[in-house]
Amino acid sequence: MLIKTRGIVLNYIKYRESSIIARIYTGQLGLQSYIINGVRKQGKGSRIALFQPFTLLDMVVYTSRQGGLTRISEYKCAQPFVSIPFDIRKSSIVLFLSEMVTRTVKEEEENPPLFDFLYQAILSFDELDEGFENFHLVFLLQLSHHLGFGPTSGKEIVEQVAFSANAQSASAAPTVLALQAYETYFDELLHDPARTTIPNGRVRRELLSVLVRYYQLHVDRLGEIKSLAILSEVLA
Fold it and tell me: Comparing C-alpha atoms, which of 202, 211, 236 is closest to residue 97?
C-alpha cells in the first residue's frame, strides 16, 4: 500500500554500489528505514543531497505489515534550506541534533506533536540569521518533554546529573558546586530562552555536556554521541 507523508531525514548508510538505506522520521508512520536506489550515482543523476541530516521531504512510500525495510515511490524536497548547508556552525549543530534524535526517537508509529515540533524547529533554525548559539540547548530541553522526561527546572537537571553514578565516576565531571552554578542558565533556557545570560562558549559547552549526561540517565543505551566533539570544536 502507498501512503503520502512528510519526512525528516535523520541519517543514511551506503548500500551496494550506488544506493543507501535512509532512516527517516515520518509524519504518518513514525521512524522508518527505506532503501533508495541509485542516489549515489556520479554526475547529474545523484540525489544524495536530499538525504543529508534534517532534510525535509514530501514522500509517497510503500508500507508493509511485516515491517522492516521498505521503499520510497516518490520523494522531493519539501522546504529547501537557505542557510544550514552554507554555515558550518549550523550544519554542525544539525549533525549533532540529528544524531541525538536518531538515538532517542524509536517509535514506528505516528506521533503528530513530536513530528510537528521537529519539523517546525528545523524550519525556524534555517531562517535564523543570528542569535542561534543556544538553539541546540533549547531544542534538547524541548525534545526531552516530547520523550517523557522533560525537566521543570534547572535544579532538577543539576541534581539528577550531580548525584548520578555516571557523574560521580567520570574524572572530568564538574563538581556538584560547579553544576549548581548552572541552575539559573537552565531555568532561563527552559522558561525564557530569548533572555538567557549565558556568558560565553565555554559555559555553553559545559551546559551541553551536562544536558547530554541528563539524556544518558533517561535513555537506555544512549551511548557516546560521536558528533558532540565536532560540535564543541566548531563552536569553540
Answer: 211
Nearest to 24 by CA among 119, 155, 89: 119
- DSSP line for 8-26: EEEEEEEETTTEEEEEEEE
CA-to-CA distance for 57 and 24, rounded, in angstroms? 9
The residues, ordered by sequence, that sit 6+ positions from 169 with a Cβ below 8 Å of its Cβ are none
d(CA 181, CA 109): 40
Residue 54 near residue 122, CB atoms below 8 Å: yes
Nearest alpha-carbon partner for 113 in 148, 76, 72, 138: 148
CA distance 55 to 51: 6
User: Please, which residues have CB within 8 angstroms of residue 151's CB and are 6 or more apart in sequence?
Assistant: 141, 144, 157, 186, 190, 214
d(CA 106, CA 32): 9
- Asked whether the beta carbons of 174 and 206 are under 8 A apart, the reply is yes
Q: What is the pLDDT of residues 26-77, one digit of tens each?
A: 999 999 999 999 888 876 667 899 999 999 999 999 997 777 789 999 999 9
Dist. CA 63–CA 189, nearest whole Å? 40
**Residue owning grid cell 542557510:** 83
Average pLDDT of the segment spanning 164-170: 54
Rounded Cα–Cα distance for residues 155 and 3 (Å): 44
